[in-house]
Amino acid sequence: MARFLPRVRRPVAVFFVSVFVLLAAFVAGIGALHYEFFLAGTGVDAMRSVVEVYDYGALPAADRAAVDAAIAGERFVYASVEPVPGYGAVGLGEQIGVVRDGTTYVFARQLFFDATAPLGLLSLSLGVLGAALFVYAVRLDMTSRR
């Protein structure tokens, strides 16, 4: 592509391609955001950063099943926020409490970048490619000024 452009415009063209590829990496990275739900601890000591406390009996059946499985040691990863137990938006490090049979269980509900997901791998690959194109554009610009 840059071979057919005049020598002065090559760095500019490569620079804009690198910006486009980096923007595509960002967009693909948004698709690699997932939600995680797991048991973080039990008791009052674990409740330092708890946002809300729910009664186990008041939770919907799907949330109760997820809470039971998380207490048993299972970790859940969701592609969207709807099935994550609890209510409202999920933050980067939010914790909720669930009172069940007199014991308070603290669960982490968090948003994270899943680098092993297909869109995560695509995002990382595009980011490396965009950074390499940017370095190449700077190098072309420096050598064209000699």
Strand order of the main beta sheet, please? Answer: 2-4-5-1-3
Helix content: 40-55%
The fraction of residues assigned to DSSP E strands is 25-35%
Total number of strands: 5
Quick one: biggest sheet? 5 strands, mixed
- Please mark out the parts with pLDDT under 50 across 5 or more consecutive residues, or reply none: none
Report mean pLDDT, rounded to a whole number: 86
Rg measurement, Å: 23 Å
Which structural class do the helices and strands define? alpha+beta
**End-to-end CA span:** 22 Å
Question: How many structural domains?
Answer: 2
Overall description:
The protein has 146 residues and is of the alpha+beta class. It folds into 2 domains: 2-30 and 117-144; 33-113, no CATH class. The chain contains 3 helices and 5 strands. The protein has a 5-stranded mixed sheet with strand order 2-4-5-1-3. Helix 1 (10-31) packs antiparallel against helix 3 (118-144).
